[in-house]
Amino acid sequence: MHCRKAAGSSVAACLAPYLGPDDIHLGTWPEAFDQGVLPNRRARKDLLHPVAAASFVSRLMRRPGRLLARRHRIDALNGAQRLKYREVLGHSPEHAYAEQVRAAFPETWRDYFKFCFVRNPFDRAVSDYLWRIRKTANKTLTFAAFLDRLDRRDFTSRTIPRHFDNWPIYTVDNRIAVDFVGRFEHLNENLDQVFVRLGLDRPPLSRSKSMQRQGSYRDWYGKTERAQVERLFANEIRQFEYSF
Question: In the chain, which stretches have pLDDT less than 70?
Protein backbone atom coordinates (compact mmCIF):
# COMPACT_ATOMS: atom_id res chain seq x y z
CA MET A 1 0.00 0.00 0.00
CA HIS A 2 1.82 3.02 -1.36
CA CYS A 3 1.80 5.80 1.23
CA ARG A 4 2.86 9.20 -0.08
CA LYS A 5 6.32 10.60 0.66
CA ALA A 6 7.45 7.53 2.59
CA ALA A 7 9.83 5.99 0.02
CA GLY A 8 6.95 4.18 -1.68
CA SER A 9 8.35 4.66 -5.18
CA SER A 10 11.71 3.26 -4.12
CA VAL A 11 10.03 0.27 -2.47
CA ALA A 12 7.93 -0.36 -5.59
CA ALA A 13 11.11 -0.25 -7.68
CA CYS A 14 12.60 -2.95 -5.43
CA LEU A 15 9.57 -5.14 -6.08
CA ALA A 16 9.49 -4.46 -9.83
CA PRO A 17 12.00 -7.18 -10.87
CA TYR A 18 9.59 -9.78 -9.45
CA LEU A 19 6.48 -8.58 -11.32
CA GLY A 20 4.52 -11.19 -13.22
CA PRO A 21 3.01 -10.42 -16.63
CA ASP A 22 -0.43 -9.66 -15.18
CA ASP A 23 0.52 -7.93 -11.92
CA ILE A 24 -0.74 -4.37 -11.47
CA HIS A 25 2.03 -1.81 -11.07
CA LEU A 26 0.83 1.80 -10.93
CA GLY A 27 2.61 5.13 -10.94
CA THR A 28 6.22 3.98 -10.70
CA TRP A 29 7.16 2.56 -14.08
CA PRO A 30 10.05 5.05 -14.53
CA GLU A 31 11.51 3.81 -11.24
CA ALA A 32 11.02 0.21 -12.38
CA PHE A 33 12.76 1.06 -15.64
CA ASP A 34 15.73 2.30 -13.63
CA GLN A 35 15.86 -1.22 -12.17
CA GLY A 36 15.96 -2.67 -15.69
CA VAL A 37 12.25 -3.62 -15.74
CA LEU A 38 10.05 -2.80 -18.74
CA PRO A 39 6.26 -2.39 -18.55
CA ASN A 40 4.59 -5.78 -18.36
CA ARG A 41 1.68 -7.21 -20.32
CA ARG A 42 -0.89 -5.84 -17.86
CA ALA A 43 0.39 -2.28 -18.23
CA ARG A 44 0.34 -2.45 -22.02
CA LYS A 45 -3.13 -3.99 -22.00
CA ASP A 46 -4.38 -1.21 -19.70
CA LEU A 47 -3.57 1.28 -22.46
CA LEU A 48 -6.44 -0.22 -24.49
CA HIS A 49 -8.82 1.55 -22.10
CA PRO A 50 -10.20 4.52 -24.10
CA VAL A 51 -9.32 7.21 -21.54
CA ALA A 52 -5.87 5.74 -20.92
CA ALA A 53 -5.23 5.42 -24.67
CA ALA A 54 -6.16 9.04 -25.33
CA SER A 55 -3.99 10.21 -22.46
CA PHE A 56 -1.06 8.11 -23.66
CA VAL A 57 -1.15 9.67 -27.13
CA SER A 58 -1.57 13.15 -25.67
CA ARG A 59 1.41 12.68 -23.36
CA LEU A 60 3.55 11.35 -26.19
CA MET A 61 2.77 14.34 -28.40
CA ARG A 62 3.74 16.88 -25.77
CA ARG A 63 7.33 16.17 -26.81
CA PRO A 64 7.11 14.82 -30.37
CA GLY A 65 10.85 15.06 -30.82
CA ARG A 66 11.28 12.28 -28.26
CA LEU A 67 8.78 9.78 -29.66
CA LEU A 68 11.54 7.24 -30.29
CA ALA A 69 12.99 7.59 -26.78
CA ARG A 70 12.01 4.59 -24.64
CA ARG A 71 12.06 6.62 -21.40
CA HIS A 72 9.63 9.15 -22.89
CA ARG A 73 7.22 6.35 -23.85
CA ILE A 74 7.46 4.82 -20.38
CA ASP A 75 6.79 8.20 -18.76
CA ALA A 76 3.71 8.56 -20.98
CA LEU A 77 2.49 5.06 -20.13
CA ASN A 78 3.10 5.70 -16.44
CA GLY A 79 0.75 8.67 -16.39
CA ALA A 80 -1.87 7.23 -18.72
CA GLN A 81 -2.24 3.73 -17.29
CA ARG A 82 -3.43 5.08 -13.93
CA LEU A 83 -6.55 6.54 -15.52
CA LYS A 84 -8.06 3.11 -16.13
CA TYR A 85 -8.25 2.49 -12.39
CA ARG A 86 -9.67 5.79 -11.19
CA GLU A 87 -13.26 4.55 -11.22
CA VAL A 88 -12.54 1.81 -8.67
CA LEU A 89 -9.43 3.11 -6.88
CA GLY A 90 -10.04 6.86 -6.69
CA HIS A 91 -8.30 9.95 -8.03
CA SER A 92 -4.79 8.68 -7.28
CA PRO A 93 -4.97 4.91 -7.90
CA GLU A 94 -1.34 4.32 -6.98
CA HIS A 95 -2.20 5.69 -3.53
CA ALA A 96 -5.55 3.91 -3.28
CA TYR A 97 -7.24 3.59 0.09
CA ALA A 98 -7.35 0.17 1.70
CA GLU A 99 -11.14 0.06 1.59
CA GLN A 100 -11.12 0.70 -2.17
CA VAL A 101 -8.53 -1.99 -2.86
CA ARG A 102 -10.38 -4.51 -0.70
CA ALA A 103 -13.63 -3.81 -2.55
CA ALA A 104 -12.05 -3.94 -6.02
CA PHE A 105 -9.89 -7.03 -5.44
CA PRO A 106 -11.40 -8.98 -2.52
CA GLU A 107 -9.60 -12.29 -3.12
CA THR A 108 -6.24 -10.59 -3.58
CA TRP A 109 -6.82 -8.56 -0.43
CA ARG A 110 -7.66 -11.72 1.48
CA ASP A 111 -4.73 -13.81 0.25
CA TYR A 112 -1.81 -11.42 -0.26
CA PHE A 113 0.75 -10.20 2.24
CA LYS A 114 -0.02 -6.50 2.64
CA PHE A 115 2.41 -3.88 3.91
CA CYS A 116 3.14 -0.16 3.90
CA PHE A 117 5.63 2.39 5.18
CA VAL A 118 4.77 5.37 7.36
CA ARG A 119 6.72 8.54 8.15
CA ASN A 120 6.69 11.15 10.88
CA PRO A 121 3.97 13.56 9.65
CA PHE A 122 5.95 16.63 10.73
CA ASP A 123 8.81 15.54 8.49
CA ARG A 124 6.54 14.22 5.73
CA ALA A 125 4.54 17.45 5.45
CA VAL A 126 7.71 19.41 4.66
CA SER A 127 8.85 16.78 2.17
CA ASP A 128 5.44 16.78 0.51
CA TYR A 129 5.42 20.57 0.25
CA LEU A 130 8.87 20.71 -1.34
CA TRP A 131 7.98 17.91 -3.77
CA ARG A 132 4.69 19.50 -4.82
CA ILE A 133 6.03 22.99 -5.43
CA ARG A 134 8.85 21.52 -7.51
CA LYS A 135 6.50 19.22 -9.45
CA THR A 136 4.02 22.01 -10.23
CA ALA A 137 6.58 24.85 -10.46
CA ASN A 138 4.54 26.84 -7.96
CA LYS A 139 7.28 28.87 -6.30
CA THR A 140 4.95 31.41 -4.68
CA LEU A 141 3.08 29.08 -2.32
CA THR A 142 4.52 29.17 1.19
CA PHE A 143 4.61 26.19 3.54
CA ALA A 144 2.11 27.93 5.80
CA ALA A 145 -0.28 28.47 2.88
CA PHE A 146 0.21 24.85 1.79
CA LEU A 147 -0.86 23.57 5.21
CA ASP A 148 -3.74 26.04 5.33
CA ARG A 149 -5.09 24.71 2.02
CA LEU A 150 -4.75 21.14 3.25
CA ASP A 151 -6.63 22.13 6.36
CA ARG A 152 -9.45 23.62 4.27
CA ARG A 153 -9.40 20.78 1.70
CA ASP A 154 -8.85 23.41 -0.98
CA PHE A 155 -7.79 21.37 -4.02
CA THR A 156 -8.30 24.13 -6.59
CA SER A 157 -4.53 24.30 -7.08
CA ARG A 158 -2.65 21.32 -8.57
CA THR A 159 -0.03 21.91 -5.89
CA ILE A 160 -2.35 20.58 -3.20
CA PRO A 161 -2.54 16.75 -3.23
CA ARG A 162 -5.97 15.23 -2.76
CA HIS A 163 -4.51 12.14 -1.09
CA PHE A 164 -2.53 14.06 1.50
CA ASP A 165 -3.39 11.80 4.46
CA ASN A 166 -1.80 8.35 4.40
CA TRP A 167 -3.96 6.97 7.21
CA PRO A 168 -6.80 5.65 4.96
CA ILE A 169 -4.25 3.94 2.68
CA TYR A 170 -3.55 1.22 5.22
CA THR A 171 -6.55 1.35 7.57
CA VAL A 172 -10.22 0.41 7.39
CA ASP A 173 -12.65 1.89 9.93
CA ASN A 174 -9.64 3.54 11.63
CA ARG A 175 -7.99 0.18 12.27
CA ILE A 176 -4.75 -0.97 10.65
CA ALA A 177 -5.70 -3.41 7.89
CA VAL A 178 -2.26 -4.46 6.59
CA ASP A 179 0.03 -7.22 7.84
CA PHE A 180 3.14 -5.12 8.37
CA VAL A 181 3.83 -1.43 8.89
CA GLY A 182 7.42 -0.33 8.30
CA ARG A 183 8.83 3.04 9.25
CA PHE A 184 10.60 5.42 6.92
CA GLU A 185 12.93 6.16 9.82
CA HIS A 186 14.09 2.50 9.73
CA LEU A 187 13.62 2.00 6.00
CA ASN A 188 16.43 -0.43 5.17
CA GLU A 189 15.96 -2.60 8.23
CA ASN A 190 12.19 -2.83 7.82
CA LEU A 191 12.40 -3.41 4.07
CA ASP A 192 14.77 -6.30 4.72
CA GLN A 193 12.07 -7.77 6.97
CA VAL A 194 9.52 -7.47 4.15
CA PHE A 195 11.72 -9.27 1.66
CA VAL A 196 12.53 -12.02 4.15
CA ARG A 197 8.78 -12.50 4.62
CA LEU A 198 8.35 -12.66 0.84
CA GLY A 199 11.28 -15.04 0.42
CA LEU A 200 12.94 -12.76 -2.13
CA ASP A 201 16.39 -11.22 -2.50
CA ARG A 202 16.18 -7.46 -2.07
CA PRO A 203 17.60 -5.29 -4.85
CA PRO A 204 19.50 -2.14 -3.81
CA LEU A 205 17.25 0.66 -2.61
CA SER A 206 17.39 3.75 -4.78
CA ARG A 207 16.04 7.03 -3.48
CA SER A 208 14.16 7.70 -6.68
CA LYS A 209 12.31 10.86 -5.62
CA SER A 210 14.33 11.95 -2.61
CA MET A 211 15.16 15.63 -2.30
CA GLN A 212 18.04 17.13 -0.41
CA ARG A 213 17.12 19.89 1.98
CA GLN A 214 19.20 21.86 4.39
CA GLY A 215 18.52 21.95 8.10
CA SER A 216 15.79 20.18 10.03
CA TYR A 217 12.11 19.91 9.20
CA ARG A 218 11.55 21.70 12.50
CA ASP A 219 12.95 24.86 10.94
CA TRP A 220 9.80 25.16 8.82
CA TYR A 221 7.41 25.33 11.75
CA GLY A 222 5.86 27.96 13.91
CA LYS A 223 3.12 27.33 16.46
CA THR A 224 0.35 27.59 13.87
CA GLU A 225 1.95 25.14 11.43
CA ARG A 226 2.72 22.68 14.20
CA ALA A 227 -0.88 22.78 15.45
CA GLN A 228 -2.20 22.23 11.91
CA VAL A 229 -0.08 19.11 11.37
CA GLU A 230 -1.05 17.79 14.81
CA ARG A 231 -4.70 18.16 13.81
CA LEU A 232 -4.43 16.96 10.20
CA PHE A 233 -2.47 13.82 11.01
CA ALA A 234 -3.66 13.12 14.54
CA ASN A 235 -4.37 9.44 13.87
CA GLU A 236 -0.84 8.63 12.71
CA ILE A 237 0.80 10.73 15.40
CA ARG A 238 -1.20 8.94 18.07
CA GLN A 239 -0.89 5.43 16.60
CA PHE A 240 2.88 5.51 16.13
CA GLU A 241 3.70 7.93 18.95
CA TYR A 242 5.35 10.41 16.62
CA SER A 243 6.45 13.70 18.08
CA PHE A 244 7.65 17.04 16.81
Answer: 208-212
